[in-house]
Amino acid sequence: MVERKSGLTWLSHIVLIVGVLCVAMPIYITIIASTQTAEELARAAPMSLLPGGHFLDTYRLALLGGKTSTGGVIVPAWPMMKVSLIMALIIAVGKIAISLLSAFAIVYFRFPFRNVVFWMIFVTLMLPVEVRIAPTYEVIASLGMLNSYAGLTIPLIASATATFLFRQFFLTVPDELVEAARMDGAGPMRFFWDVLLPLSKTSIAALFVIQFIYGWNQYLWPLLVTTSEDMYPVVMGIRRLISTETLTDWNVVMANVLLAMIPPMIIIMLMQKWFVKGLVDSEK
Amino acid sequence: MASIKFQNVKKQYGSKDKVIQVIRDLTVNIDDGEFVVVVGPSGCGKSTLLRMVAGLEEISGGTISIDSQVVNDLEPAERDIAMVFQNYALYPHMSIFENMSYGLKIAKLPKDEIRRRVEKVSEILEITPYLQRKPGALSGGQRQRVAMGRAIVREPKVFLFDEPLSNLDAKLRAQTRLEIQKLHRELGITSLFVTHDQVEAMTLAERMIVLNAGMVEQFGTPDEVYHKPASAFVASFMGSPPMNLLTDMPGIMSGEIMGIRPEHLDIGNTGWDVSVEAIEMLGAERLVYCKWGSNQLIVRVHADDISIAVGARLFIKPREDKLHRFDQATGKRIG
Q1: The domain A85-233+273-280: what is its CATH number?
Q2: pLDDT above 90 for A63
Q3: Is A194 on the interface with B (CB under 8 A)?
Q4: CA-CA distance, B13 to B61, in Å (whole number)?
Q5: Is the whole model's pTM more than 0.90, yes or no?
Q6: Which residues of B touch A283 (CB under 8 A)?
Q7: Is beta strand B256-260 parallel, antiparallel or unpaired with respect to B324-327?
Q8: Over the stretch B34-68, which tens digit does the pLDDT of each residue have?
């Protein structure tokens, strides 16, 4: 804002505070709920907004599994988080590797139908996994990739967004740099490794964050291709804890939700500086 | 060290029906160790010519040989040349040392040899204190030195310069010009230097190629080019202010252009009857813009000569031995 009227300052602060409350409230409730017992949550109609005393119990139960006081059996979240982590990492790294290479090909090589190829990749932007889910499932099932990391990740790896982003970045790299590398005797792959890759590291970091979260949050696809429990990612695990017939242990569900939020949060916090840099400036 | 031979070199863009000729049939021999400047207006094909030697542009016709080896189909790196780019083209993520040694590293030279060469060259160019910095932390002039250093460490047969001074300020440009001259004397490597700046061309060149619309207008020493321009184009392009080119006046044959440099006109009591339109003060001298019939005429006079005023009538006399004559149709020199 350019104006410096006190009324306006107040208004903007109020808007901001309301916004923050909207975002923070559910997370606060989640944290509070996970510190109480399932009985307390079920009994009190509006739940208490003060922390209860069962923080450690709930998280131990959520992470390692076991029996609840009401007799329900909790599946441990720990192995599921491992599955989620591996899946998200493969998806993020795979997407970045594939899109870097395809953008490199599209920008730096002259081959027949180059533009057609680019537009074909671009068009797939309009076809997310959900749209093509049935045929993709068919393919994965026929290839015997159900219940495997390959089946979980490969269909999600091809990425038009990332290819497009890297293409745009490569187009801003001055031609003279390519020519200088040619004069220095660097072949295409050498140029890619020594010049292009280091120059794209901020974009890579930004994309890694986005794609990691994308991979971590996958729900529908794992639901289809996994049938054995040791391949369930944690997001699916949360859903499985919410039972429709018996009493749901909401405290454990909330603990699981928080546990599932931690790894993406760590990634964002670690890469925050790079992330913003990659989205904001294109360093040349 | 090497000679460069252009034999009927052509360059064209576009397909059958829409061909743009950039270089038309260029044949030039550059001797071993020579410093040759290619000069011409923008769009005359001078950069294209350089990039063809570098291997960054394909050659549409004819051959280019370096050291009597035809290089048409060789990769840039196989031609044993080094190039200094207009925008320096330093790798922004590498330190100055890495920038300079990158080519040598790829050529798989032993590490201590690379270090020895880079250190030697950076000493000559006085960039040793910056070796560990990134290009972003250097000034324009320093980056320019690094770009030259990167070329020199390769110890190539030929240096190519693509307007390397055009991003520097006037003072630095003059200084770097002298340094390039000095370096050339020390290293004696055949150099091809492209510029649109005629002062740069005159001061640096041992011989210069004046290029216009893809054709060589003249290939000669700066002295020849200045004092005996091969065409009206060269006469008007070289020199500041340019040569006066006069037509259709008594004393000039029809179908001919008469040329005379501003410094070869004297003000006197007889001669051409002109009127003064404007006067420019340049410090040591004044330029007097005159009108003679339909011709515009510039006379260079000493700054102390303050007797001339705008609107005055003057008589000016050309020095007969400094007159140039060009054919009006072809623009070529007649005598």
Answers
A1: 1.10.3720.10
A2: no
A3: yes
A4: 12
A5: no
A6: 92
A7: antiparallel
A8: 999 999 998 888 999 999 999 999 999 899 999 98
Which residues of chain B make contact with A198, given a CB cutoff of 8 A? Answer: 93-94
Q: Could you tell me if B63 and B90 lie in one domain?
A: yes
Q: A-chain residues within 8 Å CB-CB of B91?
A: 177, 180-181, 194-195
Most A CBs within 10 A among B86, B87, B100, hence the mutation to make, goes to B87
pLDDT at position B106: 92
Q: Are residues B206 and B296 in the same domain?
A: no
ipTM of this complex? 0.83
> Per the domain annotation, does B335 fall within a domain?
no
A186 and B CB contact within 8 Å: yes
Distance from CA of B56 to the nearest CA of A (A): 7
Q: Which residue of A has its CA nearest to B100?
A: A184
> Is the domain of B167 the same as that of B203?
yes
Percent of chain A past pLDDT 90, that is, above it, reads 37
How far apart, in whole angstroms, are the C-alpha atoms of residue B130 and residue B143?
10
What value does the mean pLDDT take over residues A64-73? Answer: 75
Q: Are residues B98 and B163 in the same domain?
A: yes
* Identity of the residue in B56, B90, B103 whose CB atom sits nearest the CB atom of A179: B56
Q: Are residue B206 and residue B271 in the same domain, yes or no?
A: no
